[in-house]
Protein 1
Amino acid sequence: GEEEDIWENWTGAFWSYYNQTVSEQGENPPPKKKRGLCLSVNDKLAIRRYIATMITAGLLPALERRISTLNMNVSNAKKGVKNVFKNLLFRGKKDTGLSNASVHGFSGVSTHGRASFTAAKSVGGEPEVRYRFDSIEAQVRLLADTLFLMRDYEASLSMYKLVKDDYKHDRCLLHYASVHEMMGLCYYLLDPYGTRYSRDFFNMMETALYNYARAAEEETVAAGPAIGGSSGGRPTLAPTATRLATRLCLVLTSTKQMYNNRHMEIADLLASASSHETPLGAAVLLEQSSSHYFQSGMYRKYAFHMLMAGHMFRSAEQEQHAFRCFTSALYVYHGGKWDELHNHLRSSLAAQLYSMGRMSVALQLYAKLVGTTGGGRVSVRSQQKFLSHLVEICRGFKDDALIGADRMWDADDDDGGTKKSNDKSNSTVNAFEDVLRVTPDAMRLLEIPNMDLPRVLDSSLAVSVEDAAVAGDRGATLTFGTVSPGTESVWQDLMCSVQAELRADAENNDDIETVIDEIDKEKADLAFLARSKERAGASAAAPEVRARMEPLTVKFAMSNPLSVQIQLSEIQLVARLTSSENGRVCTSEGAVVIPGKEGERSKTWSFHSSRKAFIMGDFTRTSPTKGDDDEDGDKPWVSPNDDEEGPFFVVDKTNLAVDPGTSTEVKLSICPLVTGDLEIVGVRCKLFNELWVYHPFHVVGPLLQNTRMNRANRARGESYLLKSKIEHDMPSLTVDIVPHGGKGDATVLQGQISSWTLRISNLGTAPA
């Protein structure tokens, strides 16, 4: 059969590491060779007998002789009443005058591959040793360690107790902490399940960590700039005491019985031990402490220490570990009242992803940050860094930026979201992809949605008919009253009066009382209809009926949440209009460019009821004409410049500079050119004249009062504020009263008779 490799169990880890290193260097690892094939069965048995004889005849007797000799020396020097009184009377004379720094020494400092440093105070170039091998303290410690190696934990514990007071009196903190660590291990091995010595074990470990920390402080101060301790920052080289404390902390976290039901205490010890470590060591300890905070139910402390671990990993140039820590802490602060900490986490994570080259996710975080950092809580320098990184990603990494922008189409995408909103986001992006699929010449530009810069207050939205031209053209000749667009109540009163007079005339009854009765009956019918609509709720609501070629004005509040000025250009409305004649759709949603006639792009429109100049909106496109035999999605979309019907709607544009922390009212206009269903979906603009930004409008519908369940749940219906039903051309009448002949004073006296002219103007597109 196949021969067995007798050394595989002992050299497997080494050869795995060797093969991995060779592969990373681009070389082929050597073929695996079996070792020990030249040994026969008798050879193996002979080697086994030799090892057994060496242990029984040489090693074990030598250990017994060492224990016996050391026990005799310790008994003569430390045990008995005479030795107790002698130690009490003459203990102070053993002081050699060495400082604490020279006692501890620095010869064993771990530097992660760097050269170790030594204390300045030495004899003959060698560090001074506090306890020589022939001193009684060194012999007691050697005896205790030998008994611990032989698993005689009770005898070993008694020896550690015998020597610990000497270390404490001599202020040898490193030795004192090491003895307490070994005593704690003895308690644990004597009682692994913590039924008798759990309190003693934890006290020993806590004392050991405390003294390790004190020893590390003294070593750091004594070393000075050699380890970076005098500057107040993290040391570049960890002292021996710090490394011993770190090792002890990792031992505590590796055994479940050691920290069972003591997660809070262990977490505090780990966090305190990280204060003197290098960035990498501190990151490991902080991450371990955060896991214990999480298991103890302290989720805020878990997130905070995980965030600090991420910062330490980043300082140690461990990018992947820093990213993992930041993302682990991000979920805790999401959706709570800790907005500042949440933003701090997102800024740290964004910077980490930016340095790692993961630009799509970094774009999402930076886009969310620039819209939420307000109130001066983030410095101007940090805000400028956010904007510069955002612009740099959009300039140099367009493909990654487009992937990140697609993920932001979900309005609730703030480190989470609902399935409904995610489905809506996917359908929006899929609609853009369908246009690109069927239109060969189309291309998509980068546009960032839902960035909240500038911040648009959706609750301030108001839609009205364009009336600026009325006030401007007639302001010079207006002599009586003020310009008013009229109210719906006045119009209803006029309609009631007209309908009542028509019915009275149909009955050949000119009595004034009959007309008044008809008016009252008409008002009662209207009140009944209003109550019926209110009971029906949103089902009875409908979009407002508008006239074709009648400009509409949309007003809303826009603010700058940053502490730096932002420049906005080409601010315009984004809309979608479905024609009632052929069902074609004209929309400007999404930054999809379809090449068209260059000369038609600069065409402008003007209307009687507005002084503004209207142009076709950016990224406007029209769906193909569908025939009876055409399959859906086969024909390409077209540019309105190349279409016979032209654009279905036109918009106006404006530029704006928003100062830091200010809010302004923006008025934008849109004019439908065909009949159909118009929906205003959002607003877009250019940030710093190079980055397209889009904000979709979110309008809350009215509360439903038609059922008891809807009233209890505060259910809301659909909002029709931004939806309009575009009908055929309609007249738009304005009425004014001026003195006869255009001359005379508008002020008249009581009882005076004067001649006035009723001037009626039609600013609409249809005769009246």
Protein 2
Amino acid sequence: AAFPSSPGLLRAARAQWMPPKRQEDSGGSSGSGRATRSSKRSVSEREAQPAPKRPRSDKGKSKQRSMDTTSERADEPAGDAPRRGNEAAASSSGGGSSHEPSAAQQRAEARQAALEAAEREALEMLDESSARARAGAPSWGGPSHALQGLLRKLGAGLDDLLPSASSHGRLKTILAGLKGPDESMQLASLTELCEVLSIGTEESMSSLSVDVFTPLLISLLRQEHNPDMMLLASRALCHLMDAIPSSSAAIVHFDGVPLFCERLLSIEYIDLAEQALHALEKLSQEHPLAVLRAGGMLAVLQYVDFFAMGVQRRAVATAANMCRGLPVECAHLVADSVPLLSNLLSHHDQKLLENVCLAFARLAEAFSYSAPQLEMLAAQGLLPNVLRLVGGMASPGQSDAPVAVSDATYTMLLRMLATLCHGSASLCKQLLQLDASSTLHDVLSADATASQGSGFAAAISRPHDQLYQVLALAHELLPPLPKGSPFSAGAARLLAPKRRSKRNPEGEAAPVADSSAGERTPTEREQALLDQPELVELYASRLFALFMHVHSGAVNASVRSKSLSCMAKVLHFYPAAGLRDMVRSHAIAAFLAPLITSQEHASALLALHMAEILMTKLPAVYTDKFLREGVFDAAGRLAAQAPPPAAAGTAAATAAA
């Protein structure tokens, strides 16, 4: 509720509790006297004899002052009644005016006494708040600025302007009922408190002391012998978090989270369990780590199948909230819940399934530089389930996926798989063995087919960010190029200057020497390809041609560069004995010639690196082809544009500085 401005508010407050002016009473009595005298004159003019005087103590019937003309035309005895009534009305008006100021004064004194009581109460609350601040105790709720404090001081006379002032007395009554020994009175007070909080806002509930009500409600939540009281107490705490969002910190402080977890795990009363789940969902939005430390992940997922579908969605959404920003040191808190989350990857509900994917994506991002934790996530069948979901991108109606998910979820799953491959060599090998290249082939072939209808100059049908994540996953399936190669030394920085990380993930340490030297020890990923060369052969047979098609049809620079880097990895890690058969059906020389003179420096560097690999592995085949297609000529023109060695050294020193 919006507060009025300070001047208008003070004028309304002054008008609310100031006593009425006496001039209005005297004015009303004088007007009544004038009306009585005019009535007397009209009657005396029509009558021959004046009416006999009556004693002033005889009041008569004042309501006959407004008699119609038929009664005024009556005979002499009948006319005495209106005259007596008029005289009695005049006398009563004159006599009442003498007592009216005293009644107004009594009302003013009563209002003043109420105002002083409200001021004393406000001062006591301010003293209590100051004492809490000096003691260093946290403060939840209460007035947040000076205007609300002024309104609370004037609350005894501003019931219509400030709802919190009128509800303050009601809250005091509720608080007294909650503290009472009678359980029936406590239940009635809890019911009334739920009604007040359900329609309240942070402004209207400014007089509610959160640090007084919260521990009291939590103590009522412990009354295991009375399920109705526990249900109403948990409902009141949920309404309290809705009305005053900062009260969630008080609930965490007074150890309310473990109680909600216990009520959810016991599942003795289904209504109480659902209300506890509702409370945990609200708490997990602001305090996910506190809920996770109290056992909230296992509590919301243990009996998720017993609830209705709407409650199941809420439970999984709560679990996804607890996975946000999780430190690596707290990985043991989710280890017991990973099997439960993995089982939900086959669920038929779309919203629930998307929340499960969100939970795994957040965990993978949190553990991206810890291979053991990533392998713990994938130990319960995560990789095949996610690959089945990703397969729905190419053919939603024909895949084995339980249900189709949104494009944003597909992109998130692709990013998660790339993170798993980047952080763990073991998981990368598992994905290759699960034939992840076939899944990517289905996705990219659908895009290539869509682009062939309008020519390769047109953009790929999928969004750029989603297509980039497809290529990023294909890029992470193969080991990184050695650091001594031109691609890793220069093009990597040009491709993604903002994605470099100072931390070296496990399994990604590449030797400094070039792979052609043959003196370095193969990494774990390279050794996996050496032990199973059919993995890279299958990868190349399914994806190499599609990389060329995607590069030709895409207009986004990052997508084009990522497709070229995938091609460079295939040429680098493919066995030399079978490379001639693999490239025989592809016009690679004609493809590389225009790229070397391209304005995109990353593309030019990648093209030069691929030409160097082909000349090293297949010199007899590509010497004539490069001469015929102009690859050597393009490389010579590019070398002619290079600065002299002295100038290049100066530029390098300047860039390093």
Protein 3
Amino acid sequence: RRPLRVPRLSSRAQRPGATPARTQVPAQRTTTRGSDPARDPNFRFAMPKQAIKDEAIKDAVVGSQYLAGTGESTTFDHHQVLQESDDLIRALFFSIVKETTGTEFFQSLKEVYDLSEKFHETQAQSDFDALTTKLGSLTNEETMMLASAFSNVLNLHNVSEHVASAMEERHARLDDIPRGPAKTTNGAIKGLVAKGISKEAIYKAITEQEVDLVLTAHPTQALRRSMLKNFGTVRQKLLDLQRARLSGYERAELLDSMASAIQSAWRTDEIRRTPPKPQDEMRAGLSYFNETVFEGLPKFCRRIDSALINQGLPRIPMEHSIMRFSSWMGGDRDGNPFVTATCTRDVVYLARITAVNLYFKAIQDLIFSLSMWRCTDAFRERARLLHERETAEHVYEMRKQRNYADFWRSLPMEEPYRVVLAEVRDKLYNTREALQAVIMGKAEALDPADDSIFRDKNHLLEPLMACHQSLIEVGDGTVADGSLLDLIRQVNCFGLSLVKLDIRQESDRHADAVDAITRHIGLGSYNEWDEEKKTEWLVSELKSKRPLVAPDLECTDDVREVLDTFKMIAHLQEVCPGSLGTYVISMATVASDVLAVVLLQREMGGKMDQLLRVAPLFERLDDLNEGPNQLRRLFSIPWYHELIAGHQEVMIGYSDSGKDAGRMAAAWALYEGQENATKVADEFGVKLTLFHGRGGTVGRGGGPSHLAILSQPPATINGRLRVTVQGEVIEQNFGEHENCFHTLDLYTAATLEHSLAPPLAPSDEWRGAMATMSEVSCERYREIVFKTPEFNPYFLQATPGQELGALNIGSPPPPRPSNT
């Protein structure tokens, strides 16, 4: 990505010294282009109101190669698309500013913009002084408005980048431009075949592969959802302008919609006046499933099916999902006192309601599609039993009150698939009503014994699979493999909760809870025991069946909240199975940290076959180096080895390790830590899943995801990958359909390629060099950051950390505990 520069207002000429445009690569085919917009008789009269008065807008459209509404081009130039998008939306924005604030402020804005552009080109001190003088002459109110205007300009530039990225992905898939290194699953499969990997091995790997993308709220998306929605509209209209041949009226309507969204963003308060709650963050995360992810997953699976079929291989089995989605929103309580047991319950129910709404709409559409009468005898008998249970008058009144889209009356036996799917629709409706009742305080509404609602994804899958099997057996396989197959894959991937909620808490909080228990039963202070004694006692209690937590346990509020969380976990596992994922222990250092969580789960009502898997999070340098030894201690305990049944998850932290040791030392410790942890797991016959806590910035392990996965140590992925998608990176990856597809494709391809053709391990010479550089860099980093008295005052003055902490952009309070 090129560095951000201050772009031109409307000129299309290449500025001297600017980065040259990417070479256009024509496709091997030709397409019929639309008419020249300058010759379109409707163009002038169909333009929106602003364009009649503003020549810059008309110039930005008429002079555009990609945004003139003349149809999708067969060439692509990333730089030109970015420039054309910038020119158009900035011209619209400046026109709106002039109309809404008056000529005087607009002239100030234009003057500052022009002075900035001039200084950017010349780098002359005189031009910088002129800009400084102009800014110094502004009033406080004008300065605030100017800052807001340039903030909008930068946000609109981000929209242009998203559009250019989406267009580049599409043109690459159309073979209009070379893609470079394989970043698609189809490319990875072809590359592996070319390397001599057998097609059978490729098929086995991809059908066993599982990538879990874990959405987190932090680092926080700074933009309000209201702003994101408006910018999303602008982005979509820009894409519409370049994808279809438009009449002058259609083009004008798109520009009007863009202008409306831009003005809405300009007139919206950019600052949240109250902090969001964790529930709000979860709602924001789930919105991406409504907009792109839920529909994008089956489309992506179909592309993989085609890639496999092209190699003479079967499609992906219906029962397997190569992608999973999880979340920390409302489950990450480390440093956030607002994530309580009640909050966790709320976000689980919220995710379930969102999932049920999506499935309900899909089932209503499917009922229309499956109108055929041919079915197997077994399926017809199933439909007959359902039909006989219905009373026509009762069914009609019930469905009328629920205001279904159609099919209120009892369906005839000549439409057996509709009879079965109508019952699924009724159960989904009942499930939604039960969830809403629970949120309103009626806990008994989610009764595990109630067979009129769905509690487990298998209950929803079963009738869908029965429909599919019947259609296949009677020769309607094409129908079966249409929208019905898509829905089956969605249920397999998303379950009844869309995302599995991870729980994260700091290790000391668990130790304090166990300490309260041991003190209460007269064993002394758990926190004062050494690691050997802690481990021995925890294992003995895990083998024992006696209860430890007394009803009259005296404890602090913090301990009570920890125990309430484990109690809520047990409850949710019972009434909403499949809604929770991993229990992550932050600042984990020793084996007893893991055993304590297992014990607390059981003691607070968790059934042994419903306990959450527990993943230690190794974050600091010493913990990364010592982590493999602690895994060996855990795996050496027969009881624990039997409990995990050959599977263990370990999370590694990129942010805190970098803050602790510096990026160089942290990166090498992460690399070696993964190698050593995998060796220990292999030694005990355990399949290790590494959970990468990566962010978008370099300081959080950010970088190109495809290369980041391929650069992991050999034999550490093996088809199993969990990785966080943090904060504003969620918008970049899933805010638009093309980018959503690209994200799924990229992670799948990289995981497959690393598993079957891993990188070479570094030589001993390279390892020695890395060890030396890591040691020197860590020592120097710590000397500056931790031992230099002037560093903290400098850091506070040179960075906007305190100002950012005062903004209401996230649910956690700004100060974090000192040990995190």
Protein 4
Amino acid sequence: LRQCVRASAVTGTDWMLRASALRLLQRTPIVGKRAPQPTQTPSQLATAVASLRVRPGTVRARSSAASDVKVEGSETQMAPDPKLVAMRAAMRAAGVDAFIVPSQDPHFSEYVPTCFERRMFISGFTGSAGTALVTHDAALLWTDGRYFLQAEQELGPEWTLMRGGQPGVPEPSKWLADKMAKGSKVGVDPAVHSLSEARALRSALEAAGSALVTLDVNPVDTVWDADRPAFPTAPLRVHKAEFSGKSVADKVNFIRSKLDENKSDVLVVSPLDEVAWLFNVRGGDLDYNPVTLGYGLVSKDEACLYVDVGKVTNEVSAHLDEAGVVVKPYDECAGDMRAAAAAGKTLWIDADKVSVALVEAAEEAAAAAGPAEKKAKTEDEDAKKTIKEGVSPIPLAKAVKNEAELAGMLEAHLRDGVAMASFWCWLDEQAAQGKEWDEYEIGEWVSKFRAEQPGFSEESFATIAGEGPHGAIIHYRASVESARKVGPDSLLLCDSGGQYDCGTTDVTRTHHLGTPTDHQKNAYTRVLQGHIGLTTAVFPQDTSGFVLDAFARRHLWEAGLDYRHGTGHGVGAALNVHEGPQSISPRFGNMTGLVPGMILSNEPGYYEDGGFGIRIENLLVVREAKTSHNFGDKKYLTFDYLTHIPIQKKLIDFSLMSGAEVAWLNQYHADVWEKVSPRVTDEKVKAWLKEACAPVTVKTVVIR
């Protein structure tokens, strides 16, 4: 794609404008390292692009916000998007009037294998969260506040950006209910919609006189055709007992005890991180998350892992054999669910995490078997149900880390501390010499320094390196073309993390390479105060995360500032960087109580569109607090930090800081120095670390 653009002599800010036009002429997304080749040659595309006479500022996605600039059709005659043309033809052939394209794979993963990146393929939007909706005369893309700016840049002119969560912007189901004519048929792929999601959508549509239709063939796949990437084939590896802390046999026995409590026969395990946790294996099928495409079924007499058997090495096979786990091909899970249902077994499923396709397969098999063939195991009517809905016992068990997992996570963060001290030392040195690097190169340098640490396998997500205004794009990802220069007077937000054999890291630091403005220092200090306020909070056990969210926002609120994202998410132990069920957020929906052993991020921020972004993030582990009383015989909890990376003092306005806050900062830096410096072998890096961790003395004047 870059060759095509160079051939048409496109440079600088014209890149995104011409690339938007280019996307209309080929069947590939604008961004994506695995995108298939264009159907035209570079010279043919260059000639076609040049002929479009794109005027700067006229080619943009339409938006649900009335104030946004729209495509000026009178200025440019744009050819229809060939992907949308082909998809609408497939929809007509399937007999549906609309089709929903979520970001999900059959396991509802945050990051999905390229073969399931349907929403990215059809829309060109590369953010990790979003839902596309295509009708015969409209194409809409919903995403949240993290991605508004990115979506504006990436969507073509036939697409309308729906700013999710903003006033006046309906959710997809509401839009369909309001806009589609009665009698309309809305299609979905049942393999990538959960039972609860499909149920809610069906209810909304039926209330409006429309119907939900599940399709055997996804229309996006019809368009993708032979260009669709193959399923991933990365081999499995054993997650060692020294890091897992519990054997597979222990975990399977735990599941069986829960089956007895729930009066169920089979637990269906669909999320990939739950499969990996249960069987103590790791994989490489998804970018950033060390998991494999697979399912698990655990009954009272059998435990099965459904996976591409070609991924199972001899070591993994022996590991699973020892625990009595049977390995079966990935595609056989649905068949075994049908067999269990036909035999009268009760399948325990989490309606939010198991697909409609699997549930329908089991229910159809049970109905076909008929009452005579079903085995009535007990007079309890609930036990006779084919499907028993309920939250799986695995997420909470996985979220509460044992001591081996916590030790591994701390070890990962200490290795990470060395890597990031090396990176920030290098970057400060480069800036002092007047050298510049761009954001894309910064991401590569971060990965390079982490790769020098033992046990590092990959990044835990794509590095977010945002200079100046790009720092205000909350989940910005630099490309070669979009990358801004990072130099001696830059304010850089860098959010990054690593996957190690022992644990997972996620850290954000905001760093000024020159002289910050008073406004930047004020905002940064308030973010830091919120970070300290949450870290030092003491609260009763089982307090829900939303109760704690205000600790992180208080000082920003006092200045009339805020941020549009949650404050904390759970993190897996050598697993997904985002995990539940715990979180810290202003949203009241998550009532999960915090208990010792849970890990959460603490990442307040402030983002000024077109100006700069600030975020400070550490990972925290919930620990029991030492209190002088225990009212109501409750345990009281607080946090310990896992992240050991200096916080830049240059950006702090110490006149806003309390004595207790300065004391916390000094103690934090003392801990960083004590635990990280012995691991640093480069004397230049050690000198930088010593200066970065030096205590601060703030003089106070008492007025009587």
